[in-house]
Amino acid sequence: MASKQKSRLKKLGLSSSKAANSPSTSTTSSSKQYLDTSIDGQSSPASSSARSKPQYFYSESLPLETERSKENVTVTVRFRPLSPREIRQGEEIAWYADGDTIVRSEHNPSIAYAYDRVFGPTTTTRHVYDVAAQHVVSGTMEGINGTIFAYGVTSSGKTHTMHGDQRSPGIIPLAVKDAFSIIQETPNREFLLRVSYLEIYNEVVNDLLNPAGQNLRIREDAQGTFVEGIKEEVVLSPAHALSLIAAGEEHRHVGSTNFNLLSSRSHTIFTL
Predict the structure, then answer these.
(1) Comparing C-alpha atoms, which of 21, 14, 27, 141 is closest to residue 73?
(2) How far apart are CA 181 and CA 198, in angstroms?
(3) CB within 8 A of 177, min separation 6: which ones?
(4) Minimum mean pLDDT among 81-85, 98-102, 163-167, 261-265: which range?
């Protein structure tokens, strides 16, 4: 997001990704600490054999000139309930939210892990957004680059959390609507909003807004890292931005897995 009063381009990146070997999904981590930090020195749920599907959610915001030691990164875990299919198959809950910051083993309560925030299976996406993501969006509108990144295995709930549906919008549509609301509340500044939408599939970068943009190159210049040739569309309203996402989804790689009949088979990055 760029204000015409600023010489630098400020960006909000929203991404959903897949963890190939982890039984859990990921969303946030605090500065200079890693996901594998635990209360008792055991390995974290992200590398254990638990059958539950927590989802980890990373959010990050930092000024362009900030040194890495000053980056602000948080890690949030969101649990989803067992699906009807898992219940029929006799699956059991292996991890649960113990309060607002602790993940604890159902089978061995002495094993627990601390995160910046933990959300139980009844938590709404709106509440997750308000607590874990909204500050990143508002910071971006004030000139601080931000990233919101969902991480986890197939069927852990990344697409539900990031995209949602008409009844329960995900973090991406909520962020887009918030950005335009902030613009309306800031009449003394001019904003120019552009969006891009790409996927990383089998280590190849493809442009979801331009089907001809295949196998794009990642470059770096004085302004930072960018994807060469990526299509950027100027957006004038939340509906316009969301229609571009819907069009991009038509070009995304999907397929059936043992866990999900229509699984996202690629990483995606939506940039505003």
Answers:
(1) 27
(2) 25
(3) 169, 238
(4) 261-265
Q: Is 115 helix (H, G, I), strand (E, B) or coil?
A: coil
Q: How far apart are the first and last CA of the chain?
A: 6
Q: Contact, 115 vs 101, CB < 8 A?
A: yes
Segment holding 179, helix H or strand E: helix 171-184
Query: Residue 224: what pLDDT?
Result: 86
- Using alpha carbons only, how large is the chain's radius of gyration in Å? 19
Question: How many beta carbons lie within 10 A of that of residue 186, not counting itself?
Answer: 13
Sheet containing 102-105, strands listed edge to edge, beginning at the edge strand earlier in sequence = 95-98, 102-105, 112-114
CA proximity to 262, closest of 249, 247, 271: 249
pLDDT value at 49 more than 60: no
CA distance 78 to 62: 24
Consecutive H or E run containing 134? helix 134-141
- Decide: helix, strand or coil at residue 166: coil
Average of pLDDT values for 220-248?
94
**Site of tokens 């630098």:** 8
Residue with tokens 């973090």: 171
